[in-house]
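BACKBONE GEOMETRY TOKENS
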Amino acid sequence: MDPTRIAYERRGRGRPLLLLHGLGDRRQSWTGVMRRLVDTYEVICVDLPGFGTTPAPPIGEPYNVYSMTETVREFCELHGLDRPHLAGNSLGGSIALELAARGAAGSVTVFSPAGFSDRLARWGMHTVGRLANAAAQLPTDVKERLADTPPARAAARVALRGDPASPDAKATRFGVQGLEPGAPYVRMVPRIAEYSFVQRYVDCPVTIAWGDRDRTLLPSSAVHAHERVPNARMVSLIGSGHIPMADDPVAVAEHIRWTCRSADRGHAPRQPR
């Protein structure tokens, strides 16, 4: 993957802070968080390869958490981002933790990172992948009509929002644009289901936060996350679902700020025993 083709937005002044979105999302998911941090940090939001306006690698090239991690590392090198603060959601959280394990992060704040699910949850992700692959075979107009049906909209609200009944969640729907055979989402879902974060020491401040209403990557995954990143500060986001930037951007911004300040004050994480 070519790091020069990554689309991004860069605002603010201060130490760099890189924001990484989740699977199937785009950089605009961080808008409400970004504007709360640009007074203190130079905030960079990127479209990960295959999402937003960043192209995916050609079929046949590696396309998984590890290849994305390498591309983001090359992006940082290209733009002079030396050990930036990192924050990520879901897939973006996994990438942030992988970079931190390589010593390439000043601090890490992640929200419902992938890679800590149990066997049942992995089976569920594989099922989602098969359904996405089947849906990709349908004509676009059929997919759009299905996505707009009340049951599909209800399922999207339940899967993605902390409070499915809130007015803010009303417009939530599954995106089908670009859901074609070989589409980035279809290619990545099985890779996410297979991925597991391997325990390693992370030598910077880490916050791992989980929405207590996350129905995509269940909050019980936080137990595995704490076992594999034992120096992490663990946080429960009350009332938030899988995309807490949409449910509570204020709390998300404050947890990122807390972790960044911990690093900027020279906090030393606990050494493993």
